[in-house]
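Students often ask why we bother encoding 3D structure as a string. The short answer is that it lets us treat folding as translation between two languages. Here is a chain of 281 residues written in the first language.
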Amino acid sequence: MKYDEKLDIYTQRDYKVVKSNEIVQKAKYDLNITELKTFAFILSKIKPNDKENQEYVFSIKDFCLVCGIDYKNGGNYNHIKNTLKGLRDKSFWLIDEDGKETTVGWLGKVKLDKRSGRVTIKLDEDIQKYVLGLFNNYTQYSLLSTLPMKSSYSFRIYELLKSYAFTKSHTFDIDDLKSKLGAAAYTNFKDFRRKVLEVATREINEYTDLEITWEPITKGKKVIEIKFDIKQRDSWGQYLNIKKANEQLEKKTEVKGQLSIFDYESADGMNYDNPVTITKG
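And here it is in the second language, the structure alphabet:
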């Protein structure tokens, strides 16, 4: 790969994802890691002066290069197509200040051109006010922080803690946290700790600009809350994690069978959802 091309990939990985805190802190939805990264990439394409109903275009090749995926594999088109359709078909409930609930979608329109390898996207009209023209009460982070993650729980917990990072700590009711993460099925705290909290802590501390710890708060023998301590890394710590994240993305994804680039096991043998993302074309 040429130097200029690699520099462009690194630049795209550092594009910023910006969301209203209302979406980050209040929304409850269940997207897999592929869908979360895909939507984050789309948001990284937004510019401060973008208008409503604007279309965003990216190439599948760029998408794969930014995400560390072998773009020469012919199965990528169908995987991206299915991921985008999943986002187009899904919606979630958002509660406003008056207590009213509104359904909000992710994508309003998706067009794919297999010959040119380009994708054109328009955001759902109801979500646009939460991601366009934000000047206050928003959360911003580098796309690169989320790209190496294998767990959707890591992604969501990172977003949540990033939105509260200025407070240096935040305590969540455990049932509300599970609901926000789409992890209500983990009724046993040992399972929730092992498959959600420990995985998220490891991935956030390894790849992002945050350093976190957590502790359970109990009532009797029952865990009722989780308290997170949040530390913003210094410049050197951020540099080291940026280096780790890029190195992780440079590793070739192991392909099994037809194509499983979005569905693979981690190094410790646990399957944490599916990874993916999208790029600036």
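Translate back mentally: The beta strands are 16-20, 55-59, 91-95, 101-105, 107-113, 118-123, 138-142, 169-173, 210-219, 222-232. Keep this in mind for the problem set.
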